Structure formats: structure tokens, C-alpha cells
Write the C-alpha cells for this entry.
Amino acid sequence: MNFQNIAPVETSTAILDLAFGKARQKGKMKKLKGNWLQIIRQKEGLKLDVVKNTIVTRLDKSLKSFPSTKDLSEFYTKLMKLTLDYPNYKKSLGAVNWAIEKTRLLHKKYVSKVVKTKGRDDIKELSKQFYGRISSILKQIDSNLVYLDQCRKIMKDYPDIKEMFTICVYGFPNVGKTTLLNKITGTKAEVAAYAFTTKSVNAGYFKINDKKVQVLDVPGTLARKEKMNDIEFVAELVLKEVADIVIYVFDLSEYCGFSVKKQMQLYKTLGNKKEILIYLSKLENKETQEALGDFDLKYYSADEIKEKIGSLIPEIIEVSEETEDSEKKAVPKVSSD
Ligand SMILES: Nc1nc2c(ncn2[C@@H]2O[C@H](COP(=O)(O)OP(=O)(O)OP(=O)(O)O)[C@@H](O)[C@H]2O)c(=O)[nH]1
Ligand SMILES: [Mg+2]
């Protein structure tokens, strides 16, 4: 899902200025035929069309560029609930929809009134009413438009997570998660010698046995449930909703600033619902070598991790068209290992 392409949402004033400006231009341009009354009726009808079309097109474009709820994965739905005022977001989309319908109805009503007018004053009065009512509709949704634009700005920074077999690299800040991601996938995400370098989700991809794998390196977490910030919640969400396998990174040298004991506590919170592969960073360090004696969990090198992942990716069985009348289906099957 790509959240970068949501179109900026204009304010009601900007949309009204544009619509009325275009209508004024239209009123000047057109050469029309008929008697004077027919001409001014036609002119006014055209202006009403321009106002309606401009407003409906602009609002509809905004509405359509937001993702439709039914296309969103559980991960993005939860992320939206976490980072937006979700009821206000839904209400705002509904309000824009309401304004589109209301504008269409009002236009229809006034177009039929204009053709029945008897003189210049009648027409003037009607168009004044129409412009007033249209302005009032748009003003009513102004706070919704402003809020939707705020949502767009937040959603623009959502990680682009693809639907494929996914590994989540997890562990305390500064332990070497991003370094491992770069090692496995060949990406060049930022690595630094201080905690919380990664502020968002880094994604890398590699192929094993002809199958593409997504590796997500999430920001370091301090496992403090009650004081989590948004990005730590995102890390948890990736871990729970997206990851098929977790790589837990231990830094036995403790150069990261966290004791092995603390790192072990976070590791234990992962439970056994998902396959967890342990990676030890900074293995060449003296301190790591010394701590290795007490470390009695199975761990893997970066190359071994890739191999192991290859053996854990589900087989995709293509159901042939002869056996299945409907469209081809891909049935995932977890390989027994
Ligand atoms: N010597 C050595 N240094 C490493 C190794 N892995 C990581 N480092 C160093 O440890 C520091 C932190 O590495 P990162 O990969 O940025 O750690 P991170 O877990 O992604 O950190 P956050 O994004 O802040 O959570 C950097 O200075 C790395 O160069 C390793 O295997 N050996
Ligand atoms: Mg990092």
C-alpha cells in the first residue's frame, strides 16, 4: 500500500475561490444565441455548472486518493487507529461525501429554477442564493478538510510494507539490527553508534530459492509497555501483525548500553507463537567472546539465517485451471521442517 500518493486536501476557501473564479471566466467567454432573457439564463446555468463541477471534482479527487478501508491490511488499519483520531478521520471522509452529494442536489435544484426566471433581478437573486448555500456547505466541512490533510501528512510517513513472507529484526536499541538487515539484504540503511538511530521501519529484500523475502528492521524498543511512544508501537505491530519469522539480535558485548540480562527479558516477552532465530552481533569483540560461555541458546550466523529462512518459506501451490473452474488460486502451505 502506497500512502505517499494521497493528494493534498485543499481548504474550503481555496476550493470556493477556484470554483467562483472559473465561473466568472465562463460568464465572460461564451457567445450565446437567443433573446436577452434566454442568454442571461444560459450564462447563469453555465456558471452554476462550472461551480458544481469544480467543487465535485476537487472533493472527489481528495476522497478517492485516501485508501479504501476494505483494501487495507490489518496492520495498516491498526496503524491508522494508533496514529490518527480514527473516528474523526472516518467522520471527515463521510462529511466530504455529504458535501459532494449536497452540491449536486443544490445544483440540480437551482438549474431548474434558473430556466423559469422572468428577469434579470430574479436570476441575480437566485445565483446569490446558490453561491451562498454552496459556500455554507463547504464552510461546514472546512474542519474536516483540514483534518484530512493532517491525516495525509501522517500517513505519508507510514512504512511501505508489502504482502509477502516477512522477517522482523527485533531487539534493544543499538544492538546491531540495521547492520544485520544491511548484511542480509545488501541495503544501505543508516547505522550509527548511538541508540535510536532507526526512527521508522527499514525494509530490505532478498531472494532465496527463487522466493522473495521482505526483511523489516524496526526501531529499537525498550520493552516498557506503559511508556511506549508511537514508533515503539509500530515496532510491536510489525512484530505481531506482519512478521512470519523474528530475528532477535543479542549484543553480548553490551556495547549497546543494555545488559545481557535485560536483553534476555525482552527476548522472553516474544513467547513461542512465532519462529525466533537468534543472531549475535559484535561476535568478534572480546567481551562477546567472554559472555558466550554463559549463553546457552542456539544462534545463527547471517548466512545460516538466510538458509534457514529459505527452508521456512511456505510453498505456493498453483491450482491449475483444469482442476479449478474459477480463477487461479495460490494456496500457501507451510513446509514441514
Ligand atoms: N564491531 C561490530 N560492531 C557492530 C556490529 N553490528 C553493529 N555494530 C555497531 O553497533 C552500532 C549500532 O548498530 P546499528 O545497526 O545501528 O544498531 P540498531 O540496533 O539498528 O540501532 P537502533 O536503530 O538505534 O535501534 C553501530 O556503531 C554499528 O557499527 C558487529 O557485528 N560488530
Ligand atoms: Mg537501526
User: Anything to note?
Assistant: The longest strand covers residues 202-208. Residues 12-155 form a domain with the Four Helix Bundle (Hemerythrin (Met), subunit A) fold (CATH 1.20.120.1190). Confidence is low (pLDDT under 50) at residues 317-337. Strands lie at 166-170, 202-208, 211-217, 245-250, 275-280, 315-318, 330-333.
